[in-house]
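Example 3.
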Amino acid sequence: MGSDDDVKKGPWTAEEDSALYTYVTVNGEGHWNSVARSTGLKRTGKSCRLRWLNYLRPNLRRGNITLQEQLLILQLHSRWGNRWSKIAEFLPGRTDNEIKNYWRTRVQKQAKQLNCDVNSQRFRDAMRLVWIPRLVERIEAATSAQSPPLQPPPPPSLLLPPCIATDTSTSTWEQKSIIPENVSGSCSDTSDLRGGWWEGDGVDSSFESLWTEENICFLQHIFS
DNA sequence: AACACCGACAACCGCTCGGGG
DNA sequence: ACCCCGAGCGGTTGTCGGTGT
């Protein structure tokens, strides 16, 4: 009959994971509805697909989002909005679900602290004025600590984005963007973004300290 | 020690899109 | 041109562990 009673929901067991992993390893991805039929799993095709993509798939990265990944997420989100799967393409090993959760739990929390909507111009400005420059500073600091820079770091003023009212199309942080210029809204070749700099988490991934009382006061002063 | 609260993550649900008949 | 179905995407909810009281 195939009633809803036959469909199992909730957390996956090790046995289910094993069955799914074995099937996909042998037969490849796709045809998710037949996965459930072939393996005897009482899960929907959707559920199988999600479990594979978000948990079982090889080369998944686990653990904290690094500073570089944070910066990339902020930059890509400013470009594509809530296109999580698109953003995830540029963060190898990270899933769209993970990025989405990161955004909802961390970024939206910061917006709440500033009493503004995460999609508002005000919060975008806050990201440009404080968050992203601080991230860039910390990434550069971490990088220069590992290997001496070829040239002296720029003065802090260079890292500060232009004022709110100015043209935002070429803000400073975008000039310092780690997104190659050939990556546009309809990017086709993303290969040079995949793999490389994020290997090895030698940096403190927590960003809570970026959003200090001082920074919040600074922003509230500007917004008032 | 027990309880309440909160944050992070896993999983589900509904909608949309694209391909095949 | 239309319909159906599978796959993918984004929003939402559920669960669990950690922390504060």
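The CA atoms of residues 89 and 194 of chain A lie 8 Å apart. Chain A has two domains: 4-56, 67-223.
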